[in-house]
Amino acid sequence: MSTAQELMNEHPIVVSPEMSVQALAALLLEQQADGACVIEDDKLVGVVTTMDLVFQEKNVHIPTFVALMDAVIPLESNKRTREDIEKIAGTWVRDIMSDDPITVGPDSTVSDAATLMVERHLTMLPVVKEGQLLGVITKHAILKAAFNLS
Predict the structure, then answer these.
(1) Which of 1, 21, 26, 150 has minimal CB crowding within 10 Å?
(2) How far apart are CA 94 and CA 61, in angstroms?
(3) What are the residue boundaries of the structural domains of the chain, listed by start?
(4) The whole model's pTM is what?
(5) In 10 A of CB 78, how many CB atoms?
(6) Phi and psi at residue 112, in whole multiples of 5°?
């Protein structure tokens, strides 16, 4: 069975958390890529995808409240609304990236990688060893392996 190391792209797009969202959008469009790995001090600190950029155009979720007598009671945490607003208003990669990326090791199986990608709705999966980025597995790579396409 194939491993993550055999399937990964060894030259993923890598960006800094200090890159502007505008520059990131231009880079991903130019490279026709779904995302990039965010590296700081030679360590993977996050992943940013085109969906993170699309997120900036979404409507803000307004929390639901119930009025009871003279009290207004929120039915959910304001944390989600605050996080949405911060991400929508983000101007730097650091503001919009997923800062706890899901990763696999180089010896992980392709089926384990595919399972993670499906269950966690991932467009790319970094392959990491001892904190160092080795490459990424993309949806396209999984498709090629699954259907023996080159």
Answers:
(1) 150
(2) 22
(3) 4-59+91-146
(4) 0.80
(5) 9
(6) -65, -40
In the block, tokens 């001892």 appear at 130
Joined together, the tokens standing for residue 57 give 């155009």
How far apart CA 46 and CA 12 sit, in angstroms, is 13
Residue with tokens 């503001």: 95
Residues 15-50 as b or e (16 or more Cβ within 10 Å = b): bebebebeebeeebeeeebbbbbbbeeeebbbbbbb
For tokens 């696999």, name the residue: 104
Could you read off the pLDDT tens digit of each residue along the chain, which spans 150 residues?
689 999 999 999 999 999 999 999 999 999 999 999 999 999 999 999 999 888 766 565 566 667 777 776 766 666 766 666 666 667 899 999 999 999 999 999 999 999 999 999 999 999 999 989 999 999 999 998 888 887
Residue found by looking up tokens 């970094």 in the block: 126
The neighbouring-strand residues paired with 15 are 38
Question: Which token pair is 47?
Answer: 């992943």
Pairwise CA distance, residues 108 & 126, whole Å: 11
User: Which CATH superfamily does the domain covering 4-59+91-146 fall into?
Assistant: CBS-domain (3.10.580.10)
CA 28 to CA 67: how far, in whole Å?
46
